[in-house]
Amino acid sequence: MDGFVDFWRAVMGMPILASEHGHKVDYLVVVMHWLMAALFVGWILFFGYVLVRFRKSKNPKASYQGVKSHASSYIEVAVAVVEMVLLFGLAIPLWSQMVDKVPAENESTVMRVIAQQFGWNARYPGKDGVFGRQDAKRISLDNKWGDVPDDENGKDDIKVYNDLKVVVNKPVVVHLSSMDVIHSFKVIALRVCQDAIPGMNIPLWFKPIKEGRYQINCAQLCGTGHYTMSGGFLTVLSQAEFDAWEASQGGGGTTATSFE
């Protein structure tokens, strides 16, 4: 399947692929395009046939009996069957895998991402692997994350803005939310797209397989500065590079954060 998808990805000019599950997504896209192409060509040929077969010069008098053949019904049933195969054989199993089989967090890169107008805030648990306690009642202008003071687990947490880091060939678990309106976390190269909804903590996961720096887009119109949401980037690093970056942060949210 990979060879088939790689060939058509090049032919169709599809974006670079940097996630493990992306091959299945691209396979579904390619097959859907072939189905749409077949339908387009088929209906164009049928339209041409109708124009010639029922032209006025050959049929000067209208027939009120209608079409007696059931060929069109059979074709419609066949198209519906193909669409059901794609839905139940490819789309739903892929969706189920990504929703129901979230990797263990102790074997993954874990982060909390909060979207805002107009950027992406992320928080990592630091070396201890435990997030500091947060309390929505404590959120204020001086405490944007609602951190609980003096919580030892939060002293090494890392907070970043528009500059997310993950490890290659290691699952990434994201807990996604929004602080204002509905946004949508979309990284095209990773074939990831998930709405961020205020008041909800929505998990998503993926496994990056290619190092690089990939743009984060917002797939929901979220305000006048919607276009600036593409200023966020997700960088896939080696484990050694990620460890060095993590150590350089020093914990305590030393990297620039923005909830303005």
In the CATH hierarchy, the third-tier topology of the largest domain is known as Immunoglobulin-like
Report the average pLDDT across residues. 87
CATH superfamily of the largest domain: Cupredoxins -  blue copper proteins
Question: Which structural class do you get from the secondary structure elements?
Answer: alpha+beta
| Tally of helical segments | 4
Compute the CA-based radius of gyration. 25 Å
Distance between the termini: 46 Å
- Just name the CATH architecture of the largest domain: Sandwich
How many DSSP-defined strands?
10
The unreliable regions are none
SSE ordering: HHHEEEEEEEEEEH
Question: How does the overall form come out from the CA principal axes?
Answer: elongated
Helicity level, as a percent range? 25-40%
Short description:
With 260 residues, this protein is α+β, with helices and mostly antiparallel strands. The protein has helices at 2-12, 22-53, 71-100, 239-249; strands spanning 109-116, 119-124, 158-161, 163-167, 172-178, 183-187, 192-196, 202-206, 212-218, 232-237.
Helices and strands in order:
Blueprint: H1 2-12, H2 22-53, H3 71-100, E1 109-116, E2 119-124, E3 158-161, E4 163-167, E5 172-178, E6 183-187, E7 192-196, E8 202-206, E9 212-218, E10 232-237, H4 239-249
Parallel strand pairs: 1-5, 4-10
Antiparallel strand pairs: 1-2, 2-3, 5-8, 6-7, 6-9, 9-10
Helix pairs in contact: 1-2, 2-3
